[in-house]
Amino acid sequence: MKEALQQIKDTATSQLKEITDLQELDNLRVKFLGKKGELTNILKQMGKLSAEERPAMGQLANQVREFLENEVAAKQELLKKAAMEQKLKLETIDVTMPGTKVEKGHKHPLNIVLDDIKEIFIGMGFEIAEGPEIETDYYNFEALNLPKNHPARDTQDTFYISENMLLRTQTSPVQIRVMENKKPPIRIIAPGRVYRSDAVDATHSPVFHQIEGLVVDKNITMADLKGCLEAVVKKIYGESAVIRFRPHHFPFTEPSAEVDLQCFNCHGEGCRICKGEGWIEILGCGMVHPKVLSNCGINPEEYSGFAFGIGLERLVMGRYSIDDMRMFYENDVRFLSQF
Ligand code: DAH
Question: Which atom of ligand 1 is nearest to the CA of 288?
Fold first, then answer.
């Protein structure tokens, strides 16, 4: 038995030396020291010994167990330390390496121009007004003198949330909301997103932006409208910018006009961008219809006003000579980083 114990001690010790990872070490521990291990097997045979032999042999067995347990623990400590060192080595950070640069964003071209326009109008005494993008039929059409079944509604088809709720097709409803809540003198612009059932092409998008304008006071005339818009266009495009007023019809203004900017690309010659016209329509305008004033509780005998609706995208395209509106919405950094 003594030899058997010595044998276990020697084999375990020499096998222990070969071990390189924690799993192997555990296997070895089970093999020699576990409940069904070799040492336990030996101890089970103690019963066969004489009463005199037993204490000495028990003592020896315990010594062997203690020795092996210590060896295993020491080896475990060693392997853990080595594993940690290996891990640290793999995770070393070279603090002298260049870092990843965080690119700073900037304003979108639509917002660059919108902010300029706001600045211009604020300088002329206007305030900024806002209205909801989900509008009621009343504000988007009815109050603007576009009753149900009015043919002009056809050109402004949109997404209807319900019979009476829709995505606004224009920023003009903000005029009504402002006039309902504020007595003249009124001088506001209302920039915002609008929606139409339009197919996407170089100059159309189902979602785009308008800037509404409204001035209501005593003795406001068409001359004020022309003077105001000319001053604004020249501030945006420079003194050499050419615009023209063309008679038009809007149900909420009377008289009405459309304003065209001479094509920035061909200077009036006609090209793809202006569809051969030489001019690009940038806004609609007119004198606020008396019915619209009365709809909002303003006496048209006492007050008059002018209004306009600018298409922001077209304005920005003109300013930067961009020939495709889709560029604004595609988020291509090669395009955006140029501004
Ligand atoms: N809301 C019109 C449109 O989307 C544009 C417009 C025209 C606005 C004349 C006005 C206006 O305020 O007076 O086509």
Answer: 13
